[in-house]
Amino acid sequence: MATARAGDDLTVLKDEGDKIVRALNGVPGAADVQAQQIAGLPYVRVIIRRDKLARYGINATALLDAVSVIGGQVVGEVFEGQRRFPLQVRLAPAWREDLATLEALTIETFGSVSLTMLISLNVPVAATGGIFALWLRGMPFSISAGVGFIALFGIAVMNGVVLVEHIRHLRRAGEDCRTAVFQGSLDRLKPVMMTATTDALGFLPMAVSGSAGAEVQRPLATVVIGGLVTCTLLTLLVLPAIYRWFEPAEADRPVDLA
């Protein structure tokens, strides 16, 4: 049961709500009677310094999302029959009550143009491998080969992102550039090799097929397998070697937005 009272003066509404609560508490059998809190709620006002955000490649939405997690960020809903409850993510009490801990929060971004260029190097190298594989088998470029290049570029970019993001994670953890690159390459050796191997083995039957319709499947599979060889070598050998030339100058400094 609920009793509503409307108006535009929050002070008057609070007084009237308290009167209604006192009246309903006098009704026999009434329990847990309370008024909705409409005044006196604590709030945080965030003034965004867009000039400082721009220096670190951070957008305002990322900053506001980080701030909202302090009080609670709604990430979904929980259903129990006909009832719905908001599902929130929030910082632990120890984090919310410690100002020094809050000041140490970092905003995750991947807005570096130089690192994007580094990852994009996988695309032409992968294309080179695909073209060479077509030439080696005497196949002309076709629509199915073009579809193969599209699939190949996606795999190549994904492998680059996996490696570079892990190196960035190690750098943020305090590792120097040389150690982060070496350890990151070792850590991501198995995932990158597993991706390339499983994809190549999956396309191998199509590449050697002689059944009906194989003339469409063979160019696609040939492009993917040939490109995987070159882009995997680039990801594991060349990208780590030249990473330090592309690393953003501000990558490891704490973001001070004060």
Description:
- The two termini are 48 Å apart.
- The protein has a two-stranded antiparallel ribbon.
- It has helices at 10-25, 50-55, 60-71, 93-96, 99-103, 113-120, 122-136, 143-172, 177-207, 214-246, and strands at 73-80, 83-89.
- It has ten helices and two strands.
Pick out its properties.
single chain; 258 residues; mainly alpha; Multidrug efflux transporter AcrB transmembrane fold; 3 domains; two-stranded antiparallel sheet; 10 helices; 2 strands; disordered C terminus
Largest sheet: 2 strands, antiparallel
Unreliable runs: 251-258
Strand order, largest beta sheet:
1-2
| Structural domains: how many | 3
The assigned CATH architecture of the largest domain is Up-down Bundle
Helix content: 55-70%
CATH homologous superfamily name of the largest domain?
Multidrug efflux transporter AcrB transmembrane domain
H/I helix tally: 10
Secondary-structure map with pairings?
Layout: H1 10-25, H2 50-55, H3 60-71, E1 73-80, E2 83-89, H4 93-96, H5 99-103, H6 113-120, H7 122-136, H8 143-172, H9 177-207, H10 214-246
Antiparallel strand pairs: 1-2
Helix pairs in contact: 6-8, 6-10, 7-8, 7-10, 8-9, 8-10, 9-10
